[in-house]
Amino acid sequence: MRKMIVISLVSVMAVLLLGGCQESQSNQIQRARLVGHENLQLKKQLEAKDAEIAQLKKAMEKLRTEKDDASKQFGDTNIRVMQIIAETEKKNQQLIKEVEELKAEIKTLKAQ
């Protein structure tokens, strides 16, 4: 009888252990699937972010090009304005000299 009880207990323990191992394996499989699914989602998110980064880099390059063009255009305009100012100052000096000469000429004509 004692042998029967021991055999029964060992059998029950074996069933529980085997059932527990199967459940544990089932949980591990579920976890592995969840982790795999999460990894796929993260890869998709990463690909989307990479595409967004590439798009933003293109936009930055376009803006940088526009900025360089505007700077060049501004620089060219600045140079042209400086040239006009220099020409105007030169003409102004010539006119001042001419006015002085005319004043001197008028003075000599009045003196005669």
Word description of this protein:
This protein is rod-shaped. The mean pLDDT is 84. The protein has 1 helix and no strands. The protein is mostly helical. The longest helix has 110 residues.
Sum up the structure in keywords.
1 helix, single chain, 0% strand, mainly alpha, 112 residues
Overall mean confidence score, pLDDT: 84
Number of helices: 1
Distance between the termini: 162 Å
Low-confidence stretches: none
Structural class: mainly alpha
Taken as a percent bin, the fraction of beta residues is under 5%
Radius of gyration, in angstroms, nearest whole number: 47 Å
Overall helicity: over 70%
Shape: rod-shaped
The number of distinct β-strands equals 0
How are the SSEs ordered, and which strands pair?
Blueprint: H1 2-111
Q: TL;DR of this structure?
A:
By secondary structure, this protein is mainly alpha-helical.
